[in-house]
Amino acid sequence: MSLGKQVSARAAGTVNWGGEPVNRMGFGTMRLTGEGIWGPPKDRAAAVAVLRRAVQLGVNFIDTADSYGPNVVEELIAEALAPYPKHLVIATKGGWKRTGPGQWHHDSSPNHLREAVEGSLKRLRLERIELYLLHAPDHAISFDASVETLAELRAQGKIHHLGLCNVTREHIERARKIVPVVAVQNRYNLADREWDYVVQYCEQNKLVFIPWRPLGSGNLSYPEVTRIAQARGVTPMQVALAWLLDRAPIVLPIPGTSSVAHLEENIGAAELELTDNELAELARVKKKFTSR
C-alpha cells in the first residue's frame, strides 16, 4: 500500500458522541515525552512536527493526559496546534500522580480531579475540554465520588463530554447512573482481547471504544499477520490496525509514535479493508495467544 501524501485518517470513517464527528484513526501522545513517560522529549521540534503532521493527515482526535510528562504533552499540544483547527477534538485524562520515570500512583480524589481539570484547561489553552476521561478507578477512593466530581465539573461547563479508562462493565454502568458517559478507553488489540466484552457493551450502547496499546507490545510476528501483510504489500502494524477498525464501527484506535514516518504508516491503515477470509485467519491469533 502506498504511503504517499494522499493517505488520510478520513478513510477510516467517523464516530460521533454528540458533538463534532471525529475520524476513526486518532493519535495517542504518550510517547511524546522522555524515557519512562517522564520529562520533555529528546527532540522537541520532532515531537511538534509529529503533532502537526497528524493534523495534516486528517487526524482530528488527539488523546493525551496530564500524567504524560507530567504536564509536558498537554503543553506540547498547545505549542504545536493552538489556536486549534475548528474540528479538532483533544481528549485528556486525570487520576494519576507521577513521582518519577515509570512511577504512577492513583489519585482520583475529588480535590485532585478538580485541580487536574483546571491544570489541563490552562496547559491546553482551552475554555472547555471536549472529552475528559477518568484515567483509572482509584481503589482508595469511592469510584462514585470520582465520577460525581467530574459530573460537577461538566455542569460547570469545564468539560463537555465524559469518558472512562481501564474499567469493567460494572464501572461503566455505575457511572452512567450518575452522568452520561460517551467513551471508554481500555487496553485492547489483535492479540490481547481481555476486554472484548466491554467492546461489545460499548457497541450495544453506542459508546465509543478507544483501545489503548492498539499495537500491543509492537511484536506482531504472528504467521497469520505476516502472511496477510506480505500478500497485501502492507506492514504488520497496518494489518493490526485495520483489524481494530473492522472490529466494530465504534472503535477509535489511537496509535502513538514520535516518528513522522511511523505516523504515516499507521494512518495508512485507514485505507486497508480486510477480507472475510483474512479476518477469519486473524481470529486464530487470539486463540493462540490465550492458550499460552
Quick description:
The protein is of the alpha/beta class and 292 residues long.
Record the SSE blueprint.
Blueprint: E1 14-15, E2 22-23, E3 27-28, H1 44-56, E4 61-63, H2 72-81, E5 89-94, E6 96-100, E7 103-106, H3 110-124, E8 129-134, H4 143-155, E9 159-165, H5 169-176, E10 183-185, H6 196-204, E11 208-209, H7 223-232, H8 236-247, H9 260-268, H10 276-290
Parallel strand pairs: 3-4, 4-5, 5-8, 8-9, 9-10, 10-11
Antiparallel strand pairs: 1-2, 6-7
Helix pairs in contact: 1-2, 1-9, 3-4, 7-8
Task: Tell me about this structure.
The structure is a single chain. The protein is built from ten helices and eleven strands. The model has no long low-confidence stretch (mean pLDDT 94). It has helices at 44-56, 72-81, 110-124, 143-155, 169-176, 196-204, 223-232, 236-247, 260-268, 276-290; strands at 14-15, 22-23, 27-28, 61-63, 89-94, 96-100, 103-106, 129-134, 159-165, 183-185, 208-209. The strands form three sheets. It has a seven-stranded parallel sheet with strand order 3-4-5-8-9-10-11, covered by helices on one side. A two-stranded antiparallel sheet has the order 1-2. Strands 6-7 form a two-stranded antiparallel ribbon. It has 292 residues and is α/β, with parallel strands linked by helices. The longest helix is centred in the middle third of the chain and has 15 residues, at 110-124. The protein has a single domain (9-290), classed as NADP-dependent oxidoreductase domain (TIM Barrel, Alpha-Beta Barrel), CATH 3.20.20.
